[in-house]
Amino acid sequence: MGGKAKYYLGTDYRPNGKPSRGYIDCFTVRTEKGRGTFVLEYRWRITEAGRRHINTYRAAYQTAYPNVQVNVPDPL
pTM higher than 0.70, yes or no? Predict the structure, then answer.
């Protein structure tokens, strides 16, 4: 995820001193090589707050972005 989106959507960020929305959470995928464990990549997953946001505002997003399919997120 690029730009400033992760600071406004992700958990535990405080852009300009304001708490982020906590809609997504970052986690690491690790691999063991040789003598240690290394971060292979970072991934994002939607939080329960993010699921509630999608369900609450789905119709508004579909109206604003008619060419984008909005799926129901899988349960946690």
Answer: no
